[in-house]
Amino acid sequence: MTDRSQDLLLTRKDKDPPVAAIDIGTNSVLLLVAQKNNKNRLNVLLDIERVPRLGENLSETNKLSITAQERTILSLKEYLSICLNYGVSHIQTVSTYVLRKAKNRDEFLYKCKKIGIDVKVLSEQEEAIYSFDGAVFDFPYKNLSNIMVVDVGGGSTELVSKKSPPFIKSIPIGAVTLTNLFIKNDPPKNDEISKIKKYIEKELNKISAPSVADLIGIGGTITTLASIKQKLATFNPYMIDHKILTKDEINEQIIHLSSLNLVQRSRLPGLFPGREDIIIAGALIFLAIMEWIGIKEILVTVKGLRYGIVKSILGK
After folding, report:
1. What's the pTM?
2. Of 310, 145, 152, whose CA–CA distance to 217 is shortest?
């Protein structure tokens, strides 16, 4: 469990009631509770993550297992209780690749509906746009057309730039799916790492690399890499948000992480439970994209799709 809560800058008195966004992913489920403050800016009340891994074995079976569904429903019930305690006026729940791919998604959607949650399954384009808007909503950049947001998820990777014409791509490579497909040993063997690299390169080479000046990375992989770099004992968004990771630093982390077994990785400062098995594949995706684009560093943000959802709810 990871708590991404940020300190309350203002009290909730005399403000609009808070709203919430729930993002159901292949690996994690995220909850953001926020409201407009008296300066019409976003005031984050709570930002938390649970890792029920709804997409466990999805790449092999194309189905959501009963146990994975049950774990996720428990997380959603917890989130509903939290939203009630915060007096949330509106909850928007979305899902991405995991429910786009699952053949039995209707079964899971029915279970969500039974507990009072209507889930919108986002298209690839909707996911990319919300992710971009969430990643850049508090950035001072004047020219957003020179930026590409990279969102490495459990089942897919979204690339989006608002250049003209817009560049929006969803690639079927994710930290969970690549781990399940290729890593069979602990620690992984060199040939397994090589197979992941070749697979990522093959998928990237199907499209033309856009010309952009800056990369922004979002999602659990890149924030975990930034956390490991700083050896954080607990998740601290202020120590991660807007930090820089270089291509060399990511490569060095991959080499180090690949030399450790799961238990050793789980003990690394900054690597929080639920990512020790998939962090290598996720990091390989980021490294390959940086090489493909030809950029030596990436800016990390803890924000992402859920922030884009909240922004759309509030009309910010």
Report:
1. 0.88
2. 152
